[in-house]
Amino acid sequence: MDDKAILNGIACNADSQLPLPSWERAGKRGNHEHHPCGLPLSLTLPTHKGGGNEDGDPSIVVAKQNNALQVYALDDAAARLGLEIGQPLANARAICPHIKVFDADPAADLRTLNDIADWCDRFTPLVALDAPHGLFLDITGCAHLFGGETMLMQTICAALTRQGFIVSAGIAGTSICARTIRNHAHGSIVVSGEEAEAVRRLPLFALGADDAIIRGLRRAGLKTIGDVASRERHEITARFGARFTTLLEQALGQGDAPISPRKPLPDYIVEKRFPEPVSTEDVISAALSALAKMLVAAMDRLGKGARSLEASFFRTDGVVSAISVDTGLPVTKAAIIDRLFRERLDALRDPLDPGFGFDLIRLSASRTEIVVQQQRDLDTHVHDNDELAALIDRIAARIGGRRVVVHLPQDTHIPERAVLAASAQHHLNAATQAAWPKRVASEPPLRPLRLFEKPEPIKVPFATVPDGPPHHFTWRRATHVVVRVEGPERVAMEWWKQDGAALTRDYFRVEDEAGLRFWIYRDGLYGSELRDEKSEPVPANWFVHGLFA
Amino acid sequence: MILSPNRSHFGGSCDTARTNMLASLRSRLERLETPGETHVLNRVPLGHAAADAALRGGLATGAMHEVFAQGRQSGAATGLVVGFAGRLSPRRPLVWVRQDFCEIESGALSMSGLSELGFDPRLMVSVRAFNVDTALRSTADALACDAVGTVVLEVWGEARQFDLVASRKLTLAAQASGVSCLVLRVAAEPQPSTAETRWIVQAARSPPARSLGPEMSWCAWGAPVFDAQLVRNRHGPVGQWIMEWKCDERLFSEPAPYPQPVAAAPVHRSHQAATRALQRRVG
To answer: Is residue B4 situated within a structural domain?
Structure first.
């Protein structure tokens, strides 16, 4: 590949369904896959848009670098005019006054790269981004499924080229080596152990190091990677820093830079590929059921159950949608997995759009646990908790795990914080064993049955005595005349946790003439807390915090 | 079934199969034709003698009961529902399904308030649905699970989705599993439904202090007292009573006798009759 960025067209070309950023620079970064035991592969995925340039005007993308607009990417026509990446926009305009200029959009580029990475998930679960334009795919143990490394590389490159991207790829044993050979030429495969041999002849730029370092090395007369490698390491380190030496060694295959995959590796993966894309709901759900059975069979061999499942649907046009389901207890039955996914699919606001059909459906268990096998008891109520957990899973699959909650007591006197609502899937056992404060026998309820999350302000014209309860108050535009009062119950704020801004509250239980019972409070103490800067008393704020039955 | 003319080889087994199928079809038809009537309802006494008499022994489990209240009476309505749930299934989990909007309008259900009423908060699972459709669906799911004791569906305001079909679904689910369903409708007007009973509730005034004597007057008020009107009862008369919830005994009871005006309720007329009569007069 040439190091020149090629760019063209706008928008997306007709056959591409991937949301493409408006401009991409071609031929820049590498993408690669590697293998500890041997065959590494590096794919470079520079992308570029085909098609869009109807009138043949040269186009460039500019970005602000070093406080000036510089050429960030350019298309073939612009390259033929002699424009280069890194040139100031003013120079480019001087060379070609009718040039079309677009702004770079790194966020859109990254989205596209992520979409491509999603698509690449069909080849290997370990896909890492190599920003801004590359991807690493760890194809260890995967290549034979696609007819070997060469075939795999061809498949990926052909598919991406069809989508309008310019691709270059390489395979090597380590990530940096793969990227280095990809930077130099498309399609090379380096057998493990021959990395040093393969990169020795390559020019320095293929390393992808800083321009200043490359210039420095050139000035010293070192033109190829082999030239640099033949020098003593400490000389290079002293002049160009340890990072460059590390990069060099990794390129030579003497060390490996681990890639960081986008998603953790699932414990189990089962998948089904379709020779003809499927799009009908029946086929999709039947495929999912079959996959669930396969997954359960695989987990069953090690006595495991799934806590977290993900189904991915790969569309023929490259769009991938993933749906995940969590469970409270490890699931060991295919029927339950099937049902959870059906609930989830039913509840999707944006239904699964098959487009032209899915050609791959994958089910993975991202978190599994050992299942303790228990003998069923004849008493029907012994397993109620399991059934309740299964019910919670089903509801949570449809409306989301955070919407199904159990309640845990908290050690605080502040009423609105006394209860923590926790996800029922994860805290069901904790909630059933929680210790709640006992009620005081033969007392009427001391706490309201309904509590407002945010206390609602009420209008209190006056209180009989400054510290006393109100005579009447207005809440939600209705006036309530207080007939009976009990209180105050004083709740001081937690001064050891806060900065002292919160005021002490005096709570009253009041009943109005219709029999409605409220829990109201006055914010602040008269005399001490309710004073302005000149220590004049200020009127208190009153709130209704809850309703009694 | 094989409809071959020559069935002599396996006629015997075919006959047995046919008899079995006929029997199962007959029983299915019977169930379809007499919905709910053959279903024996277990009843749990509320503790309030007059109400229990009207209810023929108490509130039925495995059925749907509706509680209506005005917007500002949400506290009282919640109290009555918690009381019913406490009577219907004191030791089984309670699933409380509510719309998000309920929390804003009438406040979130407070666990300390629940335990003050004698209900164990450990049995509580809350489901916060974003709309009525989701709430209905989650309720139907929960009703199908017989590990649950009671399911409460709380919907604020009028809900078009909660029609006869929806309530029929809930009733059937409750019958099949034996789980009781309580529907709490605040700020809504009663609509036709398949509920076993329907209540309209508002808070009742606490007994006046002087009626209890000087030593009791300071603690006489504050206990949940409901003015509960039974406006629909599929298997008995309707009525209206003042009911007090005893938090310690976890029972409803008659309040201490004291004068409080209570409107006389038509004993053997459902509330729909009254509404229709009103509509006739208006129309």
So the answer is: no
Distance of alpha carbon B83 from alpha carbon B184, whole angstroms: 12
| CB-based contact, B110 to chain A, within 8 Å | yes
| Domain membership flag for residue B187 | yes
Q: Cβ of B145 under 8 Å from any chain A Cβ?
A: yes
Number of domains making up chain B: 1
Identify the band that residue A538 occupies on the pLDDT scale cut at 50, 70 and 90.
confident
Nearest-10 crossing angle of helices A424-432, A384-399 = 150
B126–A448 CB contact, under 8 Å: no
CATH number for the region A195-251 comes to 1.10.150
**Which of the following CATH numbers is that of domain A268-372: 3.30.565.10, 3.20.19.10, 3.30.70.100, 3.30.1490.100?**
3.30.1490.100
Report residue A171 as tokens.
């395979």
Q: Inter-chain contact A431–B127, Cβ cutoff 8 Å?
A: no
Reduce the DSSP state of residue A31 to 3 states and report it: strand
Tokens at A23, concatenated: 């401009």
Cis amide leading into B93 (omega within 30) = no
Expressed as residue numbers, the domain containing B242 is: 43-282
Count chain A–chain B contacts defined by CB atoms under 8 A.
Answer: 199
> Does residue B219 sit in helix, strand or coil?
helix
Residue-range domain boundaries for chain A: 58-98, 195-251, 268-372, 381-439, 450-547
pTM confidence score: 0.73
CATH number at residue B244: 3.40.50.300
Range A50-68 burial, b when 16+ CB lie within 10 A, else e: bebbeeeebbbbbeeeeee
Cα distances from B170 to residues A339, B65, B140, B157, B174, in angstroms, run 20, 11, 6, 19, 6
Give the gap in angstroms from C-alpha B246 to the nearest C-alpha of chain A: 9
B225-267 confidence digits (pLDDT tens): 999 999 999 888 999 999 999 888 889 988 876 555 556 555 5
Does a structural domain hold residue B9?
A: no
Distance between A35 CA and the closest CA of chain B, angstroms: 48
d(CA B76, CA A349): 36
